[in-house]
Design brief:
With 373 residues, this protein is an alpha+beta fold. It has 2 domains: 111 residues, no CATH class; 218 residues, no CATH class. It contains 10 helices and 14 strands. Strands 3-4-5-14-8 form a 5-stranded antiparallel β-sheet. A hairpin with a 5-residue loop joins β6 and β7. The longest helix is centred in the N-terminal third of the chain and has 34 residues.
Length: 373
């Protein structure tokens, strides 16, 4: 009994200490508010944030409830209609409810203009220019590229100049190669030869969130319990080197990389063009497989090339101006030998090129940004 009382006293003391800390913190906020002579405005802002948090939390609970009621045939309303009707019944105002967005497919809840809204309205948002600030020497517009309902990804609206291509931590960067085209126009291409020796291969990509951008590839490596040291994956390691690309990372971005992966590119395209059947996958089950294959027919054969894979009228996915570049690299290996990388060419084809030597293909000057929403 005495032991029990000691434990209770101990717990009470802990609670008391926590309470004092909270009071001290809250007092500090109050002092700052008064010092700024805006106590009323601050209080109003805090109240609004609290109300919004309660609203979103309630909407999330109702979204889950809709699934049960729908299965039990207790409602014929869509998830969105159900949630907003119930919120109104709980006393939330029409103005408060107006900006709530609920994903019909996943049930995730957000606000207008946020990650959930963008993912569910790609026609409205994908390709939209945003006011994004970064510190590189490029002068390009930044566009919304993709949303997974939790995060928003941006992409450069055009190729960045070679001068803005970053060096890695060893001070190296890919080499610029100027090539002439058949109609005597010139494009400035970039090859990876200058940086390949700075990376070991797949083991250079240790961040799980970056591995997940090539989820099929790393799942394959885990399946065969192996690693890769090919030139192609070394080139990918540079493109996914967030230390090298951090010059493009603005204040609100979690990271920047040198280009979208095949998986991310196709996810974005299929969200905007749901009629597309384009798929990518590492289909091998042995040590001879080096990267991704593609198909544009769910019953078709997996290949390393798909002609006319993308709509050339949509510059979010294809830049058709050969003067700027013949193609752009994707941050994914191709199943075409030890130095093959996947590319999107200027005619809308999904193909591959050799990262060391071979044809000159424009380096992926798209930079990708991941935002917490």
């Amino acid at each position: 009994m005495k032991e029990k009382q000691k434990r209770v006293k101990g717990i009470s003391l802990i609670v008391l200490i926590v309470t004092i800390v909270v009071i001290i913190i809250l007092s500090s906020i109050a002092i700052i508010s008064v010092a700024n002579n805006k106590p009323v405005e601050i209080a109003k802002e805090v109240t609004e944030l609290h109300n919004k948090s309660v609203l979103l939390e309630s909407a999330g609970v109702l979204s889950a409830e809709w699934k049960t009621d729908s299965l039990l045939e207790k409602t014929a309303l869509s998830r969105n209609e159900y949630v907003k009707k119930k919120l109104e019944e709980q006393g939330f105002t029409e103005e408060q409810i107006r900006d709530i967005v609920v994903s019909e497919q996943t049930g995730r809840v957000g606000e207008k203009g946020g990650a959930v809204d963008i993912a569910n309205n790609p026609d409205k948002y994908y390709g939209k220019v945003v006011d994004y600030r970064e510190n590189s020497e490029s002068d390009v517009e930044w566009k919304i590229f993709y949303s997974d309902e939790s995060n928003i990804y941006l992409i450069a609206g055009d190729y960045i100049p070679y001068v803005a291509v970053p060096t890695n931590l060893k001070g190296h960067r890919p080499a610029e190669v100027v090539t002439g085209s058949n109609d005597n126009q010139y494009t400035s291409d970039i090859q990876f030869a200058g940086i390949l020796e700075d990376y070991t291969g797949s083991e250079s990509i240790t961040d799980v969130k970056l591995q997940n951008l090539n989820s099929s590839y790393f799942a394959y490596l885990r399946l065969i319990n192996n690693k890769r040291e090919n030139d192609s994956i070394k080139a990918v390691a540079y493109m996914l080197d967030t230390d090298a690309w951090k010059v493009f990372k603005g204040d609100n971005a979690e990271y920047a990389i040198g280009g979208p992966t095949s998986e991310l590119f196709i996810k974005s395209y299929r969200q905007k063009y749901p009629q597309s059947a384009l798929e990518c996958k590492v289909v091998g089950v042995n040590d001879e497989t080096n990267g991704y294959r593609y198909r544009n027919d769910s019953s078709g054969i997996w290949n390393t090339y798909v002609a006319s894979a993308f709509d050339t009228s949509d510059s979010l996915y294809v830049i058709t101006d050969k003067i700027k570049g013949t193609a752009m690299w994707l941050a994914s290996t191709s199943d075409t030998g030890r130095d093959g990388l996947s590319v999107i060419n200027c005619t809308g084809g999904l193909s591959y090129a050799h990262c060391r030597g071979g044809i000159g293909v424009r380096f992926s000057t798209y930079c990708l940004f991941k935002f917490y929403c």
